[in-house]
């Protein structure tokens, strides 16, 4: 079966297909006397290597008449990284405008590569939060493995990043750095006291006065009743505002400093460090952002990006909800602060926020980071709705069953009553659910239950059939992603 393929591989005349074998010809690579290429036979992918030398010997696989067949394992990914460095994640050392492309299935990166390959965007192909890893029962090395193999498969050599997203503990940061993360998104939300904003002035004063005097005097000496003016931004910091910000953020600022000094600064490889304060109960006041930024500067903490929580609603998998003029004013203030202190603004939950993308591109002067993830999952669900109606109906029904559990993890304002009943939808109309915001949110936040729930015998209810179906329609999925992410990039003025 492989005889002609191996002959052509050795002879530099490789074709894209051989007797039921798809050859990813863009993956063809050579290191000294060894050649390797990625193929797919049925649903299984293999590395096929010929020749001799370290690369050939290092690949873990099965020898057979002068060639080696190797599974795309974690160990073999590390071998590819060793001999073909472009397959390993790197930091965005040129601080290029970047997009996070979270892939919960491990199948989306080929489509992402098609969307970004002719642009100057720095892509973060390996981006998953701890929440996503928990929900999908994946390890972080699986995320980097999937991205690296896709980069090898597509022959993408422009560099990509790996974001350890929404990490809250030093242990998780160290673990994901050890696994190859080139960007760390520190989520300090657990150190942010969201209750302070609900206090009235009297309650606020009472709570503030019992705060350690050294903390109070530190911030009062630096910020009390001060006016800040730069790059078109003018901020006045009143005692009330300062008391709120100190009580809300002082612990988070200390934690950021601890993480930076203990882990980020000593880390020997280039690394992007993002501060995420977007998952809070209220929008980030620009004064709060300024104080945090000034403290990071004064503590010699260097960050690449900061993710504030903007005004309006950034709900999962649907467009922005809010007043665009107010959003414009809000992001303009945050950008002025970011540019003053020398970092970029990061926009989380960027999936499908089409109405604000032109504003983001304009107000950041084209220098930003935008994160997506859910939309790449929803494109897979849309392929099922188009190609596998019976399975889609099961997925949709299970999402309805598990929706209330999912709302504990994701803030959404979904109204299930706005979602037409499955019973009333003909098969050819099922894709219309993916144009219904409430259905998009239903299908988005229940991804973990769809992928991991099992029956009483321990058999997956949907997972295996979901992946098998997607495998059968992989080119459709890849095309969906290319078109959909290209729409994101175009509106961000990146394509
Ligand atoms: O769902 C998650 O936990 C992540 O996708 C997280 O929301 C991520 O930081 C993001 O903003 C993707 O749009």
From TrEMBL:
The active site is at 165 (proton acceptor), 274 (proton donor). Keywords: Isomerase, Metal-binding. Its EC number is 5.1.2.7. Belongs to the UxaE family. A divalent metal cation binds at residues 166, 316, 348. It catalyses: keto-D-tagaturonate = keto-D-fructuronate. InterPro entries: UxaE (IPR032586). Its cofactor is a divalent metal cation. Transmembrane segments: none annotated. The gene is uxaE. This is Tagaturonate/fructuronate epimerase. One of its GO terms (molecular function) is racemase and epimerase activity, acting on hydroxy acids and derivatives.
């Amino acid at each position: 079966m492989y005889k002609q393929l191996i002959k052509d591989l050795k002879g530099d005349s490789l074709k894209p297909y051989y007797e039921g074998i798809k050859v990813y010809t863009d993956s063809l690579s050579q290191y000294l006397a060894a050649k390797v290429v990625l193929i797919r036979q049925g649903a299984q992918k293999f590395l096929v290597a010929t020749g001799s030398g370290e690369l050939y010997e290092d690949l873990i696989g099965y020898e057979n008449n002068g060639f080696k067949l190797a599974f795309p394992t974690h160990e073999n990914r590390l071998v590819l990284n060793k001999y073909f460095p472009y397959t390993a994640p790197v930091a965005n050392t040129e601080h290029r405008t970047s997009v996070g492309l979270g892939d919960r299935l491990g199948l989306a990166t080929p489509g992402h590569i098609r969307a970004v390959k002719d642009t100057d965007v720095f892509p973060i192909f390996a981006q998953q939060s701890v929440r996503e890893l928990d929900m999908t029962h994946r390890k972080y090395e699986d995320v980097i493995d999937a991205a690296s193999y896709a980069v090898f498969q597509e022959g993408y050599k422009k560099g990509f990043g790996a974001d350890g997203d929404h990490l809250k503990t030093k242990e998780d940061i160290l673990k994901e750095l050890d696994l190859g993360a080139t960007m760390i998104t520190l989520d300090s939300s657990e150190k942010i006291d969201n209750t302070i904003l609900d206090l009235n002035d009297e309650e606020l004063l009472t709570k503030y006065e019992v705060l350690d005097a050294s903390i109070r005097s530190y911030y009062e000496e630096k910020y009390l009743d001060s006016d800040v003016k730069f790059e078109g931004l003018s901020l006045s910091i009143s005692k009330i505002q300062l008391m709120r910000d100190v009580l809300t953020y002082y612990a988070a600022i200390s934690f950021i400093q601890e993480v930076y000094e203990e882990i980020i600064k000593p880390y020997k490889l280039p690394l992007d460090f993002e501060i995420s304060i977007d998952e809070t109960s209220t929008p980030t006041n620009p004064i709060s952002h300024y104080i945090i930024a000034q403290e990071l500067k004064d503590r010699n903490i260097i960050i690449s990006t900061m993710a504030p929580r903007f005004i309006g609603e950034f709900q999962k998998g649907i467009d922005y909800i809010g007043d665009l003029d107010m959003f414009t004013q809000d992001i303009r203030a945050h950008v002025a602060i970011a540019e003053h202190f020398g970092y970029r603004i990061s926009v989380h939950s960027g999936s499908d926020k089409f109405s604000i993308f032109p504003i983001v591109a304009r107000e950041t002067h084209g220098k930003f980071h935008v994160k997506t993830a859910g939309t790449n999952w929803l494109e897979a669900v849309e392929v099922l709705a188009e190609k596998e109606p019976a399975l889609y109906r099961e997925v949709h029904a299970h999402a309805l069953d598990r929706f209330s559990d999912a709302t504990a993890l994701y803030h959404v304002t979904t109204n299930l009553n706005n979602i037409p009943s499955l019973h009333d939808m003909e098969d050819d109309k099922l894709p219309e659910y993916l144009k219904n915001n409430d259905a998009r949110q239903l299908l988005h936040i229940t991804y973990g239950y769809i992928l991991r729930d099992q029956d009483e015998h321990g058999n997956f209810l949907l997972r295996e059939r979901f992946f098998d179906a997607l495998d059968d329609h992989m080119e459709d999925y890849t095309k969906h992603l290319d078109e959909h992410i290209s729409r994101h990039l175009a509106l961000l003025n990146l394509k």
